[in-house]
Design goal:
Blueprint lengths: L31 E5 L6 H14 L4 E5 L19 E5 L11 H14 L4 E5 L6 H14 L2 E5 L13 E4 L4
Parallel strand pairs: 1-5, 1-6, 2-3, 2-4, 4-5
Amino acid sequence: TQSRFTEQNYKNNIHFQGFEPQFPEGLPRGTMVDLAGPTSCGKTSFALSLLASVTRSGKHAALIDGTGHIFPPSLQNFQAKTTHLLLVRASEQNNIARPDSKRLLWATNQVLRSGLFELVVLLGLKRHAPTALRQLQRSSEQSQSILLVVHANEHNIPGGLFHTRMVLCSA
């Protein structure tokens, strides 16, 4: 069988201004990317930089924040165009420190299914079923959006579901 990531599809990849060394061919539309690494190694900053790159190019991006730690005005430090950014806080009303995985997955799936966003970044997903990730993968493929899932470490995610796995600051 022929891979859906053939040379002819590279021209449709999403390119990130300022990230050419990391992604010389860009990233294929409709894929899920796993960004993992230990705490405080720069995963969130890297993800926010990619998000800002998309918004600066005039395209739309979404950030699903299950951590409750993203302060919207700080996104301007990354030169993100906030007019091209959707921020969704998907945590329990009374306890922002404990994200509800079902809410995060549901919110992410709805944003992907809208088809309006080049890049969707998911922060704070800790526990989940592989079937839920498969649903996000299908939604990402159908919408032709890139889903960037940021994880606390590289050991809690089934690797076969992701097109690209990036580990920052690996030991």
